[in-house]
Amino acid sequence: MEIRSPQTPSGEAPRYTCPYCALKSDGRSGTCPQCGGPVDVRALVSPARWAEVPGQKGEAKVQFGGSHCRISGSYVPAVEADLVAGDGVYFAHHMLLWMEPGLHVGAMSLKGAFKRVLAGMPIVMAEAKGPGRIAFSRDAPGELLALPLQPGEAVDVREHLLVFATDAVAYDWFQTDIWYKVQTQRGNDRETEIHRPLGLFMDRFSAGSRPGLLVLHASGNVFVRNLAEGQFILVKPTALLYKDPAVGMQLHFEHPATTWSAYGAWTQRYTWLRLQGPGRVALMSAFEPVHGEGGSLVACSPATQRQW
Amino acid sequence: MMEGLHTPSEGGAPPAPAERIQCTWCQGQNPKDARNCRSCGAPLDLRNLVSESGWREAPRLRDMTEIRFGQSTCQVEGEVVPVAEIHLGRGDSVYFEHHVMLWKDEAVPLTTLQLPGGFKRALAGMPFIISVASGEGRIAFSRDATGELVVLPLHPGMEMDVREHAFLLASHTIQYSYVRIKGLANILFGGQGMFMDRFVATQAQGLLILHGYGNVFERTLKAGESLLVEPGAFLYKDASVTMDIQRQKLTSGLLGGFGMSLARMTGPGRVGIQSMYVHHATGE
């Protein structure tokens, strides 16, 4: 199948705009050359304006630099990168599926190793340099999401979801400052626990002067929505996949109305992540439970609340 | 509105009987050119997938299929871990276990459903608080596992027993209760715990959506017909189907043997099973 990138003019003006990454191309190929999204299907957008990321099924080919990768499989997909000389990718070593013996693989040291150990994040990223082939997968059902970054663009991603990033993408992280402390009674003992539903850190990936590519793994299906400036949405904290850095987030607690008692109403608590636009927000449909909703809330990061 | 979707009000007067097509999954009536059943979302233009022994695969809902109930709609999104996005009309509500909420509009109010026997349910590990979301507004649900959404419209008079924690949501016209599983052997070896959820449609039709792990298969048993199923695979059954646990001893001569429990389901009625399950007896 022929794939023409906008950098290789086909002699006619680009007339197709990918609904998932906004790349303009001639639309002749079966998939977007930048993110792998299919061009032969309509964008699947729910009435609430969540766009379902279609999954890069059918050996979608994604170009980055002189290299490319192909995403194949459906329930537990794998991505195979064909790196040319001079191109490289970095990744967490447990994502590696297979590689050619001649590929050069080394370690990419990261700052803040001690804090990362405390947070359970990898302290060493592996990096592979072309030429050669290397493939990745994560041992969980879900989707692989190719997320192109234009020069100057950045995205905040939940920890542990990176499959690989190209060497044109800078890697950094920041403290989420999303936490709450609950107290529970166990027998005669009172236990206090801190819960961080997003983890202690989130990854931030940014493209410098060159475009780059991120490949992420999401559990289940992926849905993306653009929030207008000042628009709010409540999402399950553990369902967040990525967001634009401009999207603000804080905790939000809801207490459902109940006829039992005022005390009962107050102790019933649902924990949300309140996201505020402008910017993109992506959710995954399989998410871990939010812990500590049954305990007594004693402290938390900045939050709003509502009693129904 | 998605392709192939037909609302009940389209076209003014209801179509003549000859112009209707009946859904073989839920028996709902649809216009003859509909691609998906408007009551349960099942594709109408695809053949049923039935094994030689009579197990029918639950319909694979097309991505973005829309289902109507009351003044509300439900859109099924995704295929690996599907999401049910509900647009609640004014006066409609759905109930659910709160941990399956994925996102919601800020303005959608939440309340709780009053349940009898809260203490017993807490002891049995079942939710003793069921949450209720009311219209008008949007709310979405998903469960954290690969599987299928099973859409079961319940007509007045229908009673359905469902494995605990397997229901994703139900519309407010369906009554929710639970049945205690009788017999110590059934509790200990049945893989169900002490209770099963029971959903009853009394006056009006309602919508029940379950989440099945892996793929879901359904078989209709005749009166007196029996079948043994792995207890962990049981997903739902008509209330008319009885369930007992049958112990099977497997011996291997000198080395002794071990016991195995299977659920004996006896008709008449439907039985639904899921292909991905936990083996409760061994914890595997």
Summarize the structure.
Chain A has 2 helices and 28 strands. Chain A has 308 residues and is mostly beta strands.
Oligomer: heterodimer
CATH topology of chain A: Double-stranded beta-helix
Percent of residues of chain A in helical segments?
Answer: under 10%
Residue share in β-strands of chain A: over 45%
- What structural class results from the helix and strand content of chain B? mainly beta
Q: Low-confidence stretches of chain B at least 5 residues in length (pLDDT < 50)?
A: 1-12, 279-284
What is the makeup of the main sheet of chain A? 8 strands, antiparallel
- How many extended strands of chain A? 28
Number of helices of chain A: 2
Strand order of the largest sheet of chain A: 3-4-21-26-23-14-19-16
Helix residue percentage of chain B: under 10%
Shape of chain B: globular
Report the CATH C-level class of chain A. Answer: Alpha Beta
Distance between the termini of chain B: 44 Å
Number of spatially distinct domains of chain A = 1
| Poorly predicted runs of 5 or more residues of chain A | 1-10
Instruction: State the CATH superfamily name of chain A.
Output: Mitochondrial biogenesis AIM24
